[in-house]
């Protein structure tokens, strides 16, 4: 059998189990009086004790099952491994939703090797949904193949986005959204970048864009979206990155990317 295929199958298995364990912990263990534990890059960039505990649970599990792999996690987990595989972990994507008891938050786990994301899992416990993808093997919501919605005319596109935590950047992002709103069907700000990307993958959004993401926000969702038929990228000709993330089906991706370039969505 193909060793790469076997590796992807193993990594997917591990990612699914880690995400489910964290999901049960977060759903059942959410304190009624959950509070902000600390702020990070700005006063609105919050972290709770549950973000930290979830990351510990996930990295502990990964360390047991794949002790030679590296890990990069939002809440500080960072170690290099010897296997060449690196896990990219967002222990709660959508912390503000989780804090307020809103349902759209998830656990996002991806594994990369040689700069390529091999598998991605986005588990959204309150939706009861798990999205997964393996490179070249398609994307799934549960056991159902995920497929993007065919591109609508630009004016009929439902477009998801998000606002980063840095104050100046938010003002700039609002400015870009102000120009976009009259040109499309509507805008959604769901509060979890990973879920936004998966929503594109299953046709619950036509497109998604955001400036200022980190690898743990997009690693898994980017693969899910691509394997479901979306194009993803950054500025024209650039790969999706923290500078800019755009995801949409062919036919909508290009004009959206072009408009975002014209609006300067990539600069602060
Ligand atoms: C945030 C969410 C949000 C996006 C922010 C992210 P967090 O991640 O994905 O939707 O707009 O840019 O930082 O902090 O909830 O893990
Ligand atoms: Ca965060
Ligand atoms: Ca995140
Ligand atoms: Ca997070």
Automatic annotation (TrEMBL):
Gene3D superfamilies: 3.40.190.80, Fructose-1,6-Bisphosphatase, subunit A, domain 1. Keywords: Hydrolase, Magnesium, Metal-binding. Pathway: Amino-acid biosynthesis; L-histidine biosynthesis; L-histidine from 5-phospho-alpha-D-ribose 1-diphosphate: step 8/9. Pfam families: Inositol_P. It catalyses: L-histidinol phosphate + H2O = L-histidinol + phosphate; a myo-inositol phosphate + H2O = myo-inositol + phosphate. Mg(2+) 1 binds at residues 74, 90, 93, 217. It is an enzyme of class 3 (hydrolase). Mg(2+) 2 binds at residue 92. Its EC number is 3.1.3.25. One of its GO terms (molecular function) is metal ion binding. One of its GO terms (biological process) is inositol metabolic process. Catalyzes the dephosphorylation of histidinol-phosphate to histidinol, the direct precursor of histidine. Belongs to the inositol monophosphatase superfamily. This is Inositol-1-monophosphatase. It comes from Streptomyces alboniger. The lineage of its organism: Bacteria, Bacillati, Actinomycetota, Actinomycetes, Kitasatosporales.
């Amino acid at each position: 059998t193909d060793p790469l295929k076997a590796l992807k199958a193993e990594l997917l298995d591990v990612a699914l189990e880690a995400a489910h364990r964290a999901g049960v912990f977060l759903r059942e263990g959410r304190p009624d009086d959950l509070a902000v534990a600390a702020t990070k890059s700005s006063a609105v960039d919050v972290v709770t004790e549950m973000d930290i505990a979830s990351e510990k649970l996930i990295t502990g599990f990964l360390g047991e099952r794949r002790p030679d792999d590296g890990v990069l996690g939002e809440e500080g987990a960072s170690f290099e491994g010897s296997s060449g595989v690196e896990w990219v972990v967002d222990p709660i994507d959508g912390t503000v939703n989780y804090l307020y008891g809103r349902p759209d938050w998830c656990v996002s786990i991806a594994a990369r090797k040689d700069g390529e994301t091999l598998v991605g899992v986005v588990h959204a416990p309150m939706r009861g949904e798990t999205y997964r993808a393996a490179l070249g093997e398609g994307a799934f919501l549960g056991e159902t193949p995920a497929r993007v919605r065919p591109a609508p005319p630009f004016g009929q596109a439902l477009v998801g986005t998000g606002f980063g935590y840095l104050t100046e950047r938010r003002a700039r992002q609002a400015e870009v959204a102000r120009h976009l709103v009259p040109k499309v069907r509507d805008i959604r700000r769901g509060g979890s970048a990973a879920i936004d990307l998966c929503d594109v993958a299953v046709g619950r959004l036509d497109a998604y864009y955001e400036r200022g993401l980190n690898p743990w926000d997009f690693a898994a969702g980017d693969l899910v979206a691509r394997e479901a038929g979306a194009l993803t990228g950054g500025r024209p000709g650039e790969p999706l990155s923290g500078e800019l993330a755009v995801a949409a089906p062919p036919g909508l991706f290009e004009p959206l990317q072009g408009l975002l370039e014209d609006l300067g969505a990539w600069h602060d």
